[in-house]
Amino acid sequence: MQPRGKEQANFPGRPTQPFLAAPQSSTPFRSPGPVGGIEVSGPSRAISPFVSSGPMTGLGASGSPQNMSPFLSSGPAIGTQPSSYRAPPPSMRSNGPSSPPTSSFSAQDASIYQQSQALGFPPAPMHPPPPIGQPHMPPSGNFRPQSQIPLVPMGPPPQGSSQLTSMSNMPPPSGSVFSAPRTPPQPLLQGYSNVPQRANVPPFQPDSQFQASRPVPQPLMQVYPAAHVPPIHTSQYHAHQSLVPPPPPVGGPMGFNSREQLQHPLTGPPIGGVQGLVEEFQSLTVGSVPGALDPGVDAKSLPRPLNGDEEPIKLLEMYPFNCHPRFMRLTTHAIPNSQSLLSRWHLPLGAVVHPLAEAPDGEEVPIVNFGPAGIIRCRRCRTYVNPYVTFTDAGRKWRCNLCSLLNDVPGEYYCALDATGRRCDLDQRPELSKGSVEFVASTEYMVRPPMPPLYFFLIDVSVSAVCSGLLEIVAKTIKSCLDDLPGFPRTQIGFITFDSTLHFHNLKSSLTQPQMLVVADLDDVFLPLPDDLLVNLSDSRHVVDAFLDSLPSMFQGTSNVESAFGPALKAAFMVMSQLGGKLLIFQSTLPSLGVGRLRLRGDDLRMYGTDKEHTLRLPEDPFYKQMAAEFTKNQIAVDIYAFSEKYSDIASLGSLAKYTGGQVYHHPSFQTAVHQEKLRYELARNLTRETAWEAVMRIRCGKGVRFTTYHGHFMLRSTDLLALPAVDCDKAFAMQLSLEETLMTTQTVYFQVALLYTSSSGERRIRVHTTAAPVVADLSEMYRQADTGAIVSLLGRLAIENSLSQKLEDARQSLQLKLVKSLKEYRNLYVVQHRLGGRLIFPESLKFLPLYVLSLFKSVALRGGYADSPLDERCAAGYNMMILPISRMLKLIYPGLFRIDENLLKDLKEGQEPLRQLPLSAQSLDPKGVYVLDDGFNFIIWLGRMLSSDLLNNIVGVELASFPDLSRVVVCEHDNEISKRLMRVLKELRAKDPSSYQSCRLWLCRLDSSSIQAITRLVKMVTTTVIVPFFYLAMLASASSNSCLQHME
Amino acid sequence: MVYVWLAAFFLLVFLLVLVIYQLMSLADLEFDCINPYDSASQINKTIVPEFVFQGSLCLLFLLSGHWLMFLFCIPNLYYNLRLYQHRQHLIDVTEIFNQINREKKRRLIKVMSVVLLLLMSLFWMLWSALEADEQLVTVRSY
């Protein structure tokens, strides 16, 4: 059946038996076994120039005395850079009392309004809906202008008491006017009136500054015009002015409700920056009855991230030299200046780096070739030249922005400076004007010649793979991709198939048909051929084609159920160890033979909920970790495609991908009809996307901060060097920062990601992303600059890692604790000033964070316990979430929901308005509608139970009554208009994200199974029934942080 | 009796050398003087001998009837046994950087306990030597 070897010359003295079955073949062949040359120590040092710079990066070590100088003193240094990269002016600070006092009246009105609201609030089930949606356009805008009408004299900034007097004489009617409308309250504004109000309340009064201001507390509203004699106001105002640093948050007694009602609204001393405050946080009114099931939150008003991920692009306006946020995002674009400040920021401080993110056309990363001059780098910290370096000494020296060392400019790179200290050739040099550049590396950046792109396939051909039709799809897909493999003339390719034996395939270009060599000795794996197992694709193209054509038929009718995965892995390693490359493993059963055999785990229910639970999610056999380490050492990346219907221990298999920069593709219970499109797409993308080979990544940062832990799929080669045998545009990495100094004196911290890799074309390249972030001394600024996407991505990865060493429950709890602590801290920051008792407040920048964290709890990897998701799927999802870029991560945990029945019924033209994303709540689902849920990996088409059967049958394509099992229905194009339109809609949705392909599942909401719970479980939908208690409890948590933990699920 | 102490002394010295070697290996790794593969294999080579020395030390104390010293050895022995039973005694090269601080701390504690034992055994060795000498002297004086 197999082509026999004609070329006996290739294996001298070798009998032909091995081609048959040859279990006895071991002895003669043992000696050629090691020919593959495992002792290759070279590749491990392939990046040595990079490595050698390692010790230099200890930035905190010996800071030169002029470290701070570029930012503080040296005038020309700053001159060369746009001033906009400096910290934003403090006038936007909420607490900036020094800013011009313009908007005091709106503040007052708001506070009056707040009062009225507070009065009606506690007993009322119909309290005003809290602010929602777009916080950038505060509802307060509506009534603020009105309030200013009677108070025109307010115009000029207050200079003395007279103007303030006029303020205080504001007619009482205006108060009542504003108490009338029950539009969404803007409690934020209240804060401005609160600062003086505090003078009313002895417990909150910073005594030293308010002694003069408050002779008598004013208990009643009505008396207030009289109470405010001008002198009081002036003194208040002055007192407030002296109160430049806001008083530390008081965690003490907060008996607001009663006192607040008696509180009389003073005319606030004029404080500016209302806008800034409005943007700063939103509040949510939460019922005041503890323990009540209905906390009184209108679910519709909860913020929902309906636009998906929003990249903080506006940062680029402030820091135009930063790399685009698609490449790197900090969890907060404001680095705390002290340990104590950091300890109050309970969320992770770190970055999510996506070094090879796909840029849209026209924004590609520019390539810079320094030629023989070599790349300009700092002598000490090895930082690459970037837009933030400053040139001094008439252009002969440049100062490194990370370590402040003065470096010489090489002669070839010299350019005169203009009057402002900028280099004259700034515009021609992308490395000095762009945050992201790619340098062409010279030979000093390679230890061996750049490797060719290499794809090696390890394919399970046991009975389950053959019967499910998997083998055929894989072979066809690989064949169709052969033309598009990157690095055309140099690409190498090879195959090993295995069941209970190993099958090597000789693809020598002089052959007409491939030869199969069978090795049955699993204990001592050897290569039957020294070479020709790995061939140049363009030379052997016809043989590879012939092999892939015959592969499905080759194992037709096999009955072999065993899988010698471990030995096959070793064999693949021996073949690839010389060059490195990418190993794609197609595994459809549990490895059962030889080294690395695995057993069924996870059936033991008693394991769950105990301390041993996490071991189920860890690789069982150390063999896999060892192999992964060896693979990385030899620059081999492993991608796993797992298809098993039953348990196949993804936890163990996935560790191969985890430490080699690979990826796990899990297709549980693979069915050709349903999953083939997805598999085809994913495999084709994997094979054809631009891949960076034998890469290492290091992220350097300025003095005072240090990256401590890294999260993602890679292996740490040294404390801060990530080894990535292969990396591509679908992989992102997260890392956490720590402060090395107790107090940082710099104003800006710089980060530089450098990825040294071999491109598919065989060129050594360094991709450098530089970004700058201000150092702040203010927690509220950190909250303002927080980036929800990056935080969620980092939190998710942390939770996944925690779930590998703890119970799921504990992993979720620690996540929750972080959220609660941060909200509590934020509350402490503002609640005293702003009188927000009984409210949950959260920063505008983090308004989606609670929802996303809740969604994380509901994600496949972290949700529930034993029964909620199969162990394999849980592990696969965990591995998946460790590499996802931010936007895809957010989409996965908070999928998009679209209503499409109108699009199906009406014939809408191209270019119609795009589908509108709906909030994921039970209210969004209309039983008469058709919905698509898109999480980036799967579509779920939700068919309402009151859908017309005509529409239903058209979508499904068969009589539904005769086809009860919807999970087996394939959504494909049928011969009717509706089905065609459906496919068009799905195609549109798929086109949004080229990195994955969503396979379809139908979910028909029938009468008998339409309970919300069932949908929730299946669709992972975050329903209101879940979200509301969460908010409520998170609020409560600020009082007692433990109480909420039990109620979460 | 002196020979028991002498043997214990040498065992302890071996033990100390091994643990300090492991510590140095970890420190080298931290300062990027060595790659994780070499570091892990260096350490892993010495772990089983270390455990064996530790075990034989305990056995020696037990058999020679030095109960107090044996008691001092017990915590370390228990720790080693536990690690071995859980198959966690070897350093995992893939996770070495995440574990480096913990591993260093453990080994520092080990070093301290071994040094303590060393001093004690040194003391007892001298004590028993002097005692033997004294006995000899007393015997001779009779």
From TrEMBL, chain A:
Cite the residue spans of the region called Disordered: 1-180, 238-262
Q: Where is the composition biased (Pro residues)?
A: 122-138
Zinc finger Sec23/Sec24-type domain mapped to chain residues? 375-413
Q: Where is the composition biased (Polar residues)?
A: 63-72, 92-118, 160-169
Major location (coarse): cytoplasm
Stretches assigned to the Sec23/Sec24 helical domain: 787-890
**What keywords would UniProt list here?**
Cytoplasm, Endoplasmic reticulum, ER-Golgi transport, Golgi apparatus, Membrane, Protein transport, Transport
Query: Which Gene3D superfamilies does the UniProt record give?
Result: beta-sandwich domain of Sec23/24, Sec23/Sec24 helical domain, Severin, von Willebrand factor, type A domain, Zn-finger domain of Sec23/24
**Domain Sec23/Sec24 trunk, first and last residues per copy:** 450-687
Coiled-coil annotated residue ranges, if any: none
Instruction: Please name the taxonomic classification of the source.
Output: Eukaryota, Viridiplantae, Streptophyta, Embryophyta, Tracheophyta
Domain Sec23/Sec24 beta-sandwich stretches? 692-776
A single GO molecular-function term is: SNARE binding
One cellular-component annotation, GO: Golgi membrane
Q: Which domain of life is it from?
A: Eukaryota
Protein's organism: Ensete ventricosum (Abyssinian banana)
Q: Can you say what this protein is called?
A: Protein transport protein Sec24-like At3g07100
GO terms, biological process: COPII-coated vesicle cargo loading; intracellular protein transport
Q: Where is the Gelsolin-like domain?
A: 918-984
Would I find Membrane among this entry's keywords? yes
**Record's subcellular location:** Cytoplasm; Endoplasmic reticulum membrane; Golgi apparatus membrane
The UniProt similarity line reads: Belongs to the SEC23/SEC24 family. SEC24 subfamily.
UniProtKB/TrEMBL annotation, chain B:
Principal cellular location given in the protein's record: membrane
Among InterPro entries, the record links this protein to:
Cornichon
- Cellular compartment(s): Membrane
Specify the protein's topology with respect to the membrane: Multi-pass membrane protein
Can you tell me where the transmembrane regions are?
51-79, 108-127
Keyword Nucleus: yes or no? no
Q: Name one GO cellular component term.
A: membrane
Q: Name one GO biological process term.
A: vesicle-mediated transport
Recorded family membership:
Belongs to the cornichon family.
This chain belongs to the protein called G-protein coupled receptors family 1 profile domain-containing protein
Q: What is the lineage of its organism?
A: Eukaryota, Viridiplantae, Streptophyta, Embryophyta, Tracheophyta
